[in-house]
Amino acid sequence: MKTSDSKTRQILLVDDDRHLLESMGAWLVSLGYRVSLASNLTEARKYLSERAYELALVDLRLGDEDGMDLLAECQKHHPHVVVLLMTGYATLDTGIEAIRAGAFDLMTKPLIDDEILMAFDRALSQQQVLEENEQLKTQLDQRFGRDSIIGNDARMQKTYDMVDSIADTKATVLITGESGTGKSLIARAIHQRSNRRKAPFVEVACGALPENLLESELFGHVAGSFTGATGNKVGKFKQADGGTIFLDEIGTASPGLQVKLLRVLQELEFEQVGGSQTFKVNTRVILATNEDLSQAVAEGRFREDLFYRVNVINIELPSLRERPSDIPMLAQHFLGKVCEEENKQIEGFDQLAMQAMQDYRWPGNVRELQNIVERAVLLGSGPRLGVQDLPAHISASGGNTMTIAPSGVRQSLKQALEGPERQIILQCLRENNWNRNATADQLGVNRTTLYKKMKRLGLEDPKTVALNGW
Predict the structure, then answer these.
(1) What is the DSSP-derived secondary structure letter of residue 230?
(2) Whole-number Å distance between alpha carbons of 366 and 378
(3) For 7-137, CATH number?
(4) CATH class given for the domain over 322-467
């Protein structure tokens, strides 16, 4: 029995019994491990300073020295080394002390070959899981950290500063803004910039669950508390203990749930649904809504005391139409991501396409922009994307910005976009055999809008189209 990739493993053996040390070392080398032998702490420290070991098997008694001292040094200076201790005088207290000090296991001499290899496999497998978790956390930090939030608009710069200043506080944060402005991204950035970043970040979409299920989702339940509750369930607040819970769409919370949320925010304690045991948690709470909560308070839909409790720190995200100068940067960022994922080579958007995107109102905000860019990259061709690669409702959104036609004649952007818009609508009309209802559905516009565009662009009659050579 041996680990399948044992040839890649560096192991340090530390024992003052030279015969045992050399025989065990030779056996492990025969199995493909790379082994270093140390008979005292001085030799062990030298090896640890020179090489990167994955595992150390250390005797507790090393003459007048103590293997626990080497364990402590590994914990402090070489945390990626998994330490197994061995002894011929093991007691239950010794084992407990070793595990509490950070040893993976305490093995009793005389050692059995298969037990050694099984311990190695378990230790190295756990180390691999820990390394993968660290890599995932690093990727999350890169994806959701403050630097991942794109934009140079002054209001966004203010948001960045707030994220940095409040990250390490315990204060409740309320993030407001229209749907698609990036509230979840800001919540994750706060968590990743905080001293809680190694603990869980738990997100709950409050508007996606009915009231009875949402309460169970947040606080958990005990078996038999309601129909279908066949076992105990740990709630999201408990799962986020030590970390951050993000409650999105908090404006949809029912009056009953608002009462329980108020208690959790004030006292950080709660009971499970159907249970009597009180749980206390150390959970940082971030909430978000696209509603005007002050208006909801005035209308009696949201508790006033809860509003004041959640509105300790308010981060208000501007809509995308309020920061059009950020659209080129965001579009290029999304384009780069899609090109990398799809292995496509596209430089960017041409001037007319970018102007059309900046003139568009973006009711879906950044989320809509991301989807539009992804669509353009997947359906477009050529080194640069143009207005023909954008949906018709965006390519037709140009205002009165002036541009220069190839002939040198000054014309409005709206006029410049008429040609591509005409071709898009004409192509859809032909695909649908001039069925206006089907064409409107395909373009994602209502029929009245389509009729007006067809009239303005000279597409009312197929005969006229034929005469004009379109």
Answers:
(1) -
(2) 18
(3) 3.40.50.2300
(4) mainly alpha
